[in-house]
Specification:
The protein is of the alpha+beta class. It has helices at about 65-80, 90-95, 100-105, 110-115, 125-150; strands at about 5-10, 15, 20, 25, 30, 35-40, 50, 55-65, 80-85. Helix 1 packs antiparallel against helix 2 (about 90-95). The N and C termini lie far apart (about 75 Å).
């Protein structure tokens, strides 16, 4: 035997609410891949996680030459993993993989009680980027709309857009 492996069980549960099940429909799915990464799952976009069964969605396993390499690969794989539409344990696992005590191997049965910050709700890391893109698109559309209104034919009753570098005569 050689190396080190880490497995994360990705479940349809909310760690911030005492691992309460979160049934629902998966709207989008992107699974991780790459060297030393194994994804074992059977879910797909459109799959409905039922109320009455196990909440396990997949198992994600990484391998490395040592514990640190396996944890770094897992952290990267979890960053790539996207399940849209339901709450999952992905953000919880992400925080654990980067926690100093976990990386040091300081684990015991009271680990979560000792580190309650791992169970605190976390904002989706993509929301800020999505908001930025949405703002840019909205700004572009306003400029486009303003430009279209300003380029109406003369005599149509619409004013031309006044560009600050224009010649001052509206052309």
């Amino acid at each position: 035997m050689r190396g080190h492996a880490i497995e994360c069980r990705i479940i349809a549960e909310d760690p911030a609410r005492n691992f309460m099940p979160t049934p629902g429909t998966i709207r989008g799915l992107r699974v991780p891949s790459g060297p030393g990464v194994r994804y074992d799952g059977g879910t797909y976009a459109g799959y409905t996680v039922p109320v009455h069964y196990d909440a396990l969605l997949s198992k994600l396993v990484t391998w490395g030459a040592d514990r640190t390499e396996a944890a770094l690969r897992m952290a990267r794989a979890l960053d790539e993993y996207r399940i849209e539409g339901i709450d999952t344990s992905i953000t919880f696992h992400r925080k654990v993989m980067r926690h100093a005590a976990f990386l040091a191997g300081d684990l015991h049965t009271g680990f979560l009680e000792e580190h309650p910050e791992l169970l605190a709700p976390e904002q989706n890391p993509w929301l800020e980027e999505i908001a930025l893109v949405a703002a840019a698109v909205a700004h572009f559309r306003r400029i486009e709309q303003s430009s279209a209104q300003g380029s109406a034919a003369p005599g149509s009753g619409r004013r031309r857009a006044a560009w600050k570098w224009g010649r001052g005569d509206g052309r």
